[in-house]
Design goal:
Blueprint: H1 3-19, H2 27-32, E1 36-41, H3 46-62, E2 68-73, H4 80-96, E3 103-108, E4 133-138, H5 139-146, H6 155-166, H7 168-176
Parallel strand pairs: 1-2
Antiparallel strand pairs: 2-4, 3-4
Helix pairs in contact: 3-4
């Protein structure tokens, strides 16, 4: 599949799932203002991932107009457990390189499952993307948006409640429609 197609599908997922379900209070603005950068990666090693993460951090550092970047793995990290190892390495890399408080890492995967949750729990779809991806966000931007959001600590609970109220079939169909 072409990188362009993967990006279009990811944008569709952001619009139809993340924004339309109101899972993220600032995604709509970032999509509308085109302040999202996409980096599609295929057939890479774990070591390459950290180099790509570094490149994306540097890209954000030199492009102040961008709010966020998605590193999308078109062919890699299909196994959720190996993906979680990558997330852990990426978080350690950010911390080791003094990016705590500057960038936040969010994780999305087609088989995302919250710890202790049943695989069929619709709540998992709050983080089930169409491709494995790492999402880098500027902490300063998050802080600014959340200052205008009433009860920001309720966002995860509200997202889970929404997904569970809609049900598994609805959440599955919503995500599948992005392809």
């Amino acid at each position: 599949m072409l990188d362009h197609d993967i990006i279009k599908q990811t944008e569709s997922w952001i619009k139809q799932v993340v924004i339309d379900c109101n899972f993220c209070p600032f995604a709509a603005k970032a999509l509308l203002k085109k302040t999202i950068h996409y980096s599609v990666q295929n057939q890479i090693t774990d070591k390459d991932c950290l180099l790509i993460l570094e490149q994306e951090v540097n890209y954000l550092n030199t492009n102040d107009h961008l709010e966020t970047t998605f590193i999308i793995f078109g062919t890699d990290f299909k196994d959720f457990d190996s993906y979680l190892i990558l997330v852990n390495k990426a978080e350690r890399w950010l911390s080791k390189n003094n990016y705590d408080g500057i960038y936040q890492l969010a994780s999305f995967h087609p088989d995302y499952c919250f710890e202790g949750a049943d695989d069929l729990d619709p709540a998992n779809y709050t983080n089930r993307s169409i491709y494995p991806m790492l999402h880098l966000l500027r902490e300063e931007s998050i802080t600014k948006v959340l200052a205008f959001y009433k009860n920001p600590e309720s966002i995860p609970h509200n997202n889970i409640a929404f997904a569970q109220n809609k049900g598994l079939q609805y959440m599955q169909a919503l995500r599948l429609a992005c392809f």
